[in-house]
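#lab-general

N.A. 3:47 PM
ok so I finally got the sequence cleaned up, no stray characters, all 190 residues accounted for. can someone with queue access submit it? mine expired

B.Y. 3:52 PM
send it over

N.A. 3:53 PM
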Amino acid sequence: MFISGMSSRYSRNNAKRGIQCFFIGMVITFIFAFFAPNAPILFGILHFMGISMMIYGVWEGIFRKVPAPVGIAVCAVFFLLTRGIMYGWLGPCEGVGIKLPDFLYQAKLLFPLGFRSPDFQSMDYFPLLPWFFVFLAGTYLGEYAVNDKMPAFFYKTHIKPLALVGKYTLWIYVLHQPIAMGIFLLIFGR
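B.Y. 4:20 PM
back already:
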């Protein structure tokens, strides 16, 4: 999440990248609904990354007006404040902070924000709260990378195979799971 945020500073069109990522996440949701209905993926990492990229892409001009050290500090505070939302608390963890009203968790449609109902089930789940603040903190650190303000070793080495992998990370991520499942099916027969 953090590295993806940093990479967003290099993108020419974060909203477009976000739409592509979210679309692939939705395709995976539908595939799992059809082939593995007992193991749904309702707001997984691709959904999260796609929405985060779109939010950043739309509001990038405003986010960039905030100085990087301030942005990182604010993101850290908001991450801690929203970390317990999945468990019913506004605070760093379950039982610490302010207990949130139950109706937020009964709505059933607020799970992308972290308000999951008691019967919510997803094999892969990364809600926007608190994780968007990790992504956003990465965009602020990315400002240092883009402006050559990182330590020298950060820029010295260029490893072509890693650069190639970096160019196709989304497809590698999407394809590694069916390939791994196929290998396990061949080995274990199930």
